[in-house]
Structures are given as structure tokens and as C-alpha cells.
Amino acid sequence: MGIKSFVNCVYLVVLFVVFQSSVEGRLLLLKNNKPDRNNAAATARWLVSQNSWGVLNTISLDLGGAPFGNVVSFSDGLPDGGSGVPYFYLTTLDPTARNALKDQRSSLTISEYPLGTCGKTDPENPSCAKMTLTGKLKVIPEKSKEAELAKKALFTKHPEMAGWPQNHNFQFFSLEIEDIFLINWFGGPKPITLDQYFHAKLNKMGAIFE
Amino acid sequence: MGIKSFVNCVYLVVLFVVFQSSVEGRLLLLKNNKPDRNNAAATARWLVSQNSWGVLNTISLDLGGAPFGNVVSFSDGLPDGGSGVPYFYLTTLDPTARNALKDQRSSLTISEYPLGTCGKTDPENPSCAKMTLTGKLKVIPEKSKEAELAKKALFTKHPEMAGWPQNHNFQFFSLEIEDIFLINWFGGPKPITLDQYFHAKLNKMGAIFE
Q1: CB spacing of A108 vs B63 below 8 angstroms
Q2: Is B57 in Cβ contact with A57 (below 8 Å)?
Q3: Which residues have CB under 8 Å from B143's CB, separation 6+?
Q4: Residues A191, A51: Cα–Cα separation, whole Å
Q5: Helix (H, G, I), strand (E, B) or coil at B71
Q6: In a 3-state reduction of DSSP, which class is residue B117?
Q7: How far apart are CA A203 and CA A81, in angstroms?
């Protein structure tokens, strides 16, 4: 291979690498489109809209009243416009729904870590956002308008739910939020009122709040 | 560029791609090295040894006795030999440690989903493993042998912890497990005794249990 051909070849390899990096770069850009950390309410809504699963906690009477966390999928709306209300699709074959029907006290805990925007920061480092929404876990009445909303929100983000066995008696639940605990930087939890949370403004993309 | 040079060049690009794929392939192989799903105890130990963070749940007196989940980092030992006991490094500046000092009832919830081995399966699908260890969250006495174990386990998997501010009074905690809830396939939770859990066998790699 002559020098000129070698240079051409290196050029091709570089082009290939740049192409790969640019694809990854765009993904990174998309992921990084998170609100300014000083806007706590927007950060909270962003975490809820971007995560597809979390840990839903209830009081377990079977386990001596212990707090029982369970991995669940959730959705607060369509990908381009969440409502901030987390909806769930649960069966009483699982302890969480059974617990909630006896005692509605509950919390949903989510992390920024699985979104991939914390980089190499430790998941417990305050600069990697974490949030707990505490409130009441309630069954949504069948055939209500809210049940339709929950179904659309969940089945859009979790398509396989539409095919889950009917005889398992899945029901739609919502978390009626009473308290918001958010840490997304040093200096302790950020105070957020329900009003601030539910009225955080959408940015131009619709999906991400600022 | 002549045909021969072109062929050489294509060869180089192909080599580059093969190299990249093999690196990814090895990572995939490592991730997929999970125990047979019928070995519930080994699966439980694998989940604990492979996850670096989870949701630690306590009873919040500040929030009317609600179950309060919090994102935390944990470790059950060195990467090549976990003990099955989850250790934590917590400060009472955070509600979880404060709650535990008043009421030790607690659970740790982890998922296979962030490990990347569930593929496109929904995080709530029973074939994507999820586990809740329920028990008592206890402070480990300072300068004890267990404190040394916890420190080594945590600081090895979470190196930045060694530099966390001393005036935040971080303490080592352990979860004294009383109940194991594991779902890793259809058909409901798998019964696992503490004895089965703590005596699950290491495979030849040391890190992964079978």
C-alpha cells in the first residue's frame, strides 16, 4: 500500500469513527437535555417523564408492617406530555396491590442513574438526582375517564402490558402525591410544593420540562 | 487508490469493527453469566452481587408512618466474593438513616433491569428478575470487625465514598435479612430460605453464583 493510499485509508477509518461518535453524541445530547438543576420542580417532572420504572413502596402486614418496596413499571402520560401523576398496572397476585388495598400509604422512588446522565458519579452522590413521591396508592375506578388516561399512558410506554393475561385481574392504580422529596445537588433536599410540581412548564420539545 | 489498496483498507475497517464487536461481546457474555433461573438462591445472590445500587425502604414518622424509599448505593463484598449481606454508608442528614435509628424495619429492593440482561422485556415482566430483602437496618458498631468488612466492601465498589465529607457523620449500616422475595419467572415468587441464600455456591469465576 502506497503512502497516498494509506492516508486515504486512515481518512476512511477516521470518517467511520467520527460517524459512530456523532451517533453516540446525538444520543448523549438527547439524554442530557435535562432541566437546570436550580429548577427543582422541572427536574422532578423530568425524572418522572424519563423513567419507565421505579420502586413502589407499601406497608406489608404479612411482614410485620415492614416497608415493602417492589419493582414496577409506571407512566405519567404520553412520551411528549406527562401529567406528573404516576400510573401503575398491578395485579393482586403481587403483594404491592394487596398491601395498598389494605393501607394506601405508599411512595414511589426513582433515580436519575439508570437514565445514563450521571456519568461516573456514584448513584448515592447528591449530584445524581433521586426522588421519592409519597402519598396514597389508589385503585382507579373501572371505565372512568382516569382509567382511560392511565391505560393510554401505560400501554404507550409499556406496549407489552396490552397482552398481559386477563385472568390475572390487573387494575390501574395512581399515586395521589402528598409530598415530594428531591435531591439533585449538594445542600439537602429541594423544597417543592405540589403546585410547583404540577405547573412546571414544558419546553419547546414538549417532552422535557424546563 | 488501487484495487489491492482498497481491499487492504476494507480489511482494516473490518478488523476495527470486529475488534469493537468482540469487546462488546465480552461485556455481554460477562453480563449474561447469570445463574439458571431454577436456582432461586443463586439468582438472588447474583442480583445482590451485580447491582451497585437499589432502593432502601424505611418507615417515615415525619410522613405519617408512610413507607419511604430512598436511592442508595450498597455492596455485599468484594466484586469476586460477596457475602450476601448488604452494607450501606449513610448519614443522618438523610431521612433513611434517621428513620432506621427510630424503627429498624426496612427492605432493600433491586432489579435485574439496570444490569442490561432483561433485553427488551418490560421491567415489570416476571421474567426480568426483581427482589426485595426485608429485615432490620442496623448501625454497625464503630471499629468492629464488621465495620472493617463493610468499609472494604463499600469503598471497593464505590471508590468515591472514601472522599465523602467527614463532618457529615456517615456510618456503616447492614440489613439483617429476615425475608427474601424473588420473582424471576412466571408463577409467583420463589421460596428461598435464609440458609439457601447464604449457602448458595460460587462458581469457578468466584464472582457469579450458580
Answers
A1: no
A2: yes
A3: none
A4: 21
A5: strand
A6: coil
A7: 11
Facing A53 at nearest CB: one of B63, B95, B113: B113
> What value of ipTM does the predicted structure carry?
0.85
3-state secondary structure of B93: coil
Interface with A, mutate which of B3, B71, B106, B157 (most A CBs under 10 A): B71
Distance of alpha carbon B53 from alpha carbon A97, whole angstroms: 25
Give B210: exposed, middle or buried? Use CB within 10 Å, 0-12, 13-18, 19+. Answer: middle
Q: Which of A109, A51, A107, A90 is nearest to A173 (CA)?
A: A90
Which residue does chain B place closest to A13, by CA atoms? Answer: B13
Q: Model's pTM, two decimal places?
A: 0.85
3 state DSSP class of A210: coil
- Minimum-distance CB partner of A72 among B71, B124, B160: B124
To the nearest 10°, report the CA torsion of B194, B132, B53, B32. Answer: 80
Instruction: Report the run of H or E that residue A197 belongs to, with start and end.
Output: helix A194-198
DSSP H helical ranges for chain B: 3-32, 40-50, 95-102, 145-157, 194-198
Sheet holding B81-90, edge to edge: B66-73, B53-60, B105-111, B130-139, B171-183, B81-90, B75-78
Size of interface A-B (CB pairs under 8 A): 165
- Estimate the crossing angle of helix B3-32 against helix A3-32, to 10 degrees: 40
Distance CA A13, CA A3 (A): 15
Helices (H) and strands (E) in chain B, counts: 5, 7
pLDDT digits (tens, 9 = 90+) for B141-159: 999 999 999 999 999 999 9
Q: Give strand pairing partners of B60.
A: B66
* Cross-chain residue pair A69–B67, CB shorter than 8 Å: yes
A124 to B59: CB separation less than 8 angstroms, yes or no: no
- Among B1, B160, B178, beta carbon nearest to A125: B160
Pairing mode of beta strands A81-90, A75-78:
antiparallel
At B15 the pLDDT is 52
Task: Find all residues with CB under 8 Å of B128, minimum gap 6, and list them.
Answer: B111, B112, B113, B118, B121, B122
Per-residue pLDDT of B2-36, as tens digits, reads 666 655 655 555 555 545 544 444 444 445 578 99
